[in-house]
Specification:
Layout (H helix, E strand, L loop, with lengths): L5 E2 L1 H18 L7 H4 L1 E5 L3 H17 L8 E5 L1 H15 L12 H14 L12 H30 L25 H27 L8 H25 L1 H11 L4 H20 L10 H27 L6 H16 L2 H4 L1 H13 L27 E9 L6 H6 L1 E6 L3 E4 L3 E4 L10 H8 L13 H9 L6 E4 L15 H10 L9 E6 L8 H6 L4 E6 L9 H14 L2 E3 L18 E7 L5 E8 L8 H9 L15 H19 L7 H5 L2
Parallel strand pairs: 2-3, 2-10, 3-4, 10-13
Antiparallel strand pairs: 1-7, 4-5, 4-9, 5-6, 6-7, 8-9, 11-12, 12-13
Helix pairs in contact: 3-4, 3-22, 4-16, 6-11, 6-12, 7-8, 9-11, 10-11, 11-17, 14-16, 17-18, 21-22
């Protein structure tokens, strides 16, 4: 069977333009030319906070006639919750705007709004799916990961601890504290000897380098570059092998000098490592683990914790004469899970995805067939009056050979009814991608996979190692669009290979057969990037990300990315939005600016920020008095009660009303005028 072909971004835009023409006809809008006058709406990330604020904002857009003018809906993370809800009702189930816009609508469509309000705590919605169900799902994923990895490490320690190389004991001759009647384990001795030789090679290289600096050829930059790279490799690998090979020696040292306390001593090593990591993570800021003293504490802490753990492994199996029967059973369980289990379903991703689907794609209220939400494929979403939906994720590329992707940690990856992909991996038709099986619920859950290793907030190697070991992740392994599987059965990643790659952050690049996707906010949190790529004439950005200090970091990053990647300059002044005074009120919640595209065309942008204004409803002000961080409470809070839900929804609605009401009904030129 022929491998599905990739498409250029121009082919992607051409197909989308056909969709936009159909949309405008159904919505009874001026047909215009969507290739040159497209209107985009971006709903930012921010979990349920963003989803709820954006819900109110969408209600205001619909009430004053602007939502039907929107061609593209670009969503990230929490914005994708409510964006996918809109797509589910309006496009998939061919219904009118589902959330209502006036008090009278509560009689007709209030059931949808009531459902969303009642599911503000979507992770623990009640009934059998309570807090214990959430804890059980987390523990089940953790146990599955440990069952896969720990028996493999135990078996490795057992085989290293038994003679399979000649004269292995001699490698320990230069170390004290090993009893003369106890031969050194040959496998560990080989590691120790190899490490010692590598360190000796490093010293020799350093010596030769110093001597060679008197030769002009040796002083050439490319020669010195090779020497420094080789020296770093020899040093790192040598230290690692020496430490690993010294495990029996350290164990014997502890046993001789801490008789009766060997278990406590080994546990103390791991505990001291855990305390070091806790100290590094305490009070951290996202992304700060890889710098300064925190990086030192995390690295040292992880090394101690792992070393203590492997001392325990050696204590359990390294001294055994025969392969333990219990380890055989554990190893068999490891192989069974690795071969037959789906790595994406055993992690927290599936629990998270299912709870989001139940909350934002309700079948009963939509009068849809049972099971239809679970099977709602992207390629089956018809084009109706609702905007064409772009669901943004991040493809992790920390191991990319291209510096741009490697330093950013990824690239923008979008899902849509017509195409999926990224610049790094290429684009492929949705009908051909993983057999056309990608569905709406999985796509917007991937877009909201905020907790994941190898992101900008968790890129430190120690933290990534621990998160992968304990299966603390919401991300998703999927086939690379460069190698798209035309049958769904061929898209499952191999557990051992990809879990270890994720654990060590190695091989996460655009050329592998499978890629790892995570929250779109790990690349760009506003959803602006893909709209600028499509050169929309008008763009509205609804930003409800957590920004209590009003540093506008998400906006700054988006502006830098589109300038670097597309040559698009955005001229936007946000000072009027910044809160002032003791009450921390903003004079405005939105500002307009210009977009200058690289092809000479120009667009307009409206940037809307979740902030407090004067003359807001008293329930919103009252909630603010009780919760001073509102409307920028932490994204870790994904458990909204009714008062919190209504405060964010009403704030979004009133800010939208201030923006759209003076320009009703749907007068775009008036809305965006300077």
């Amino acid at each position: 069977m022929k491998q599905p072909s990739q498409a250029s971004i121009d082919a992607v835009r051409a197909k989308e333009t056909e969709r936009l023409r159909t949309r405008r006809m159904i919505a009874h809008c001026d047909p215009g030319d969507p290739a040159h006058d497209a209107v985009g709406l971006a709903l930012s990330g921010g979990g349920i906070r963003s989803a709820t604020f954006s819900l109110g904002f969408l209600q205001a857009m619909e009430r004053w006639g602007f939502l039907k003018r929107v061609d593209y809906l670009s969503t990230v993370s929490g914005g994708g919750y409510i964006g996918s809800c809109l797509t589910w009702f309006m496009s998939v189930n061919k219904q009118e705007f589902p959330f209502g816009t006036t008090r009278e609508d509560y009689k007709k469509r209030g059931d949808v709004l009531a459902w969303l309000r009642e599911h503000g705590n979507y992770l623990t919605p009640g009934g059998a799916l309570n807090l214990w169900a959430l804890i059980g799902a987390v523990l089940a994923g953790t146990l599955a990961s440990l069952i896969v990895l720990v028996p493999v490490f135990l078996a490795l320690v057992f085989f290293l601890g038994h003679p399979f190389l000649p004269d292995g004991a001699s490698a320990y001759g230069w170390l004290p504290a090993l009893p003369a009647d106890r031969p050194a384990p040959n496998g560990f001795a080989w590691l120790l000897s190899s490490g010692a030789w590598l360190l000796a090679a490093f010293l020799m290289l350093a010596f030769l380098y110093a001597l060679g600096t008197s030769i002009s050829w040796w002083r050439k930059s490319y020669v010195q570059r090779w020497v420094h790279a080789a020296g770093g490799f020899l040093l790192a690998l040598g230290v690692l092998l020496v430490l690993a090979g010294a495990i029996p020696w350290v164990y014997e040292l502890i046993r001789q000098h801490a008789r009766g306390w060997i278990q406590s001593a080994m546990s103390a090593i791991s505990l001291s490592g855990a305390l070091s990591m806790w100290g590094a993570l305490r009070g951290r800021k996202p992304g700060a683990e890889g710098r300064g003293w925190r990086a030192l504490l995390l690295g040292a802490g992880l090394a101690l914790a792992i070393y203590g753990l492997f001392l325990w492994f050696y204590h359990l199996v390294g001294l055994q004469e025969a392969f333990p029967a219990w380890l055989r059973y554990l190893l068999a369980a490891s192989v069974l899970i690795a071969v037959f289990a789906n790595i994406n379903h055993v992690s927290m991703h599936r629990f998270y995805r299912n709870r989001l689907m139940e909350a934002y794609m309700p079948e009963g209220i939509a009068q849809a067939a049972s099971g239809s939400a679970d099977l709602c494929r992207l390629l089956d979403i018809p084009q109706r009056a609702a905007p064409y939906h772009l669901i943004n994720a991040n493809v992790q590329l920390t191991g990319s050979g291209e510096a741009k992707y490697r330093t950013r940690g990824g690239d923008s990856f979008f899902f849509s009814p017509e195409y999926c992909g990224s610049s790094a991996t290429g684009f492929v038709a949705t009908r051909d991608y993983v057999g056309g099986g990608m569905n709406l619920a999985t796509a917007f859950a991937i877009s909201g996979a905020a907790v994941d290793p190898n992101t900008y907030a968790t890129r430190s190697r120690p933290l990534t190692f621990l998160m992968t070991l304990f299966n603390t992740r919401l991300g998703y392994w999927i086939r690379n669009p460069r190698h798209p599987a035309w049958l769904r059965g061929f898209s499952r990643p191999r557990w051992y290979w990809y879990l270890l790659r994720e654990m060590f952050g190695s091989g996460l690049d655009e050329d592998t057969w499978h890629i790892h996707l995570s929250d779109g906010g790990h690349f760009e949190n506003l959803g602006l990037y893909e709209l600028v790529r499509r050169r929309c004439r008008y763009i509205i950005v609804c930003d409800a990300g957590a920004d209590p200090g009003f540093g506008f970091s998400d906006l700054a990053r988006a502006i830098e990315l589109v300038r670097t990647d597309f040559g698009a300059a955005i001229d936007l002044k946000v000072e009027p939005i910044r809160p002032r005074g003791d009450d921390r009120l903003s004079s405005k919640a939105f500002v307009a600016g210009d977009i200058y595209y690289s092809n000479g065309t120009q667009g307009r942008i409206l940037y809307v920020k979740a902030t407090m204004l004067d003359d807001l409803p008293e329930d919103v002000n009252g909630y603010r008095r009780e919760h001073h961080q509102f409307p920028h409470q932490t994204t870790a809070d994904q458990f909204f009660d009714e008062a919190q839900f209504e405060a964010y929804r009403e704030l979004g609605y009133w800010i939208g009303a201030r923006l759209f009401k003076p320009h009703a009904p749907g007068k775009l030129d008036s809305l965006f005028e300077k």
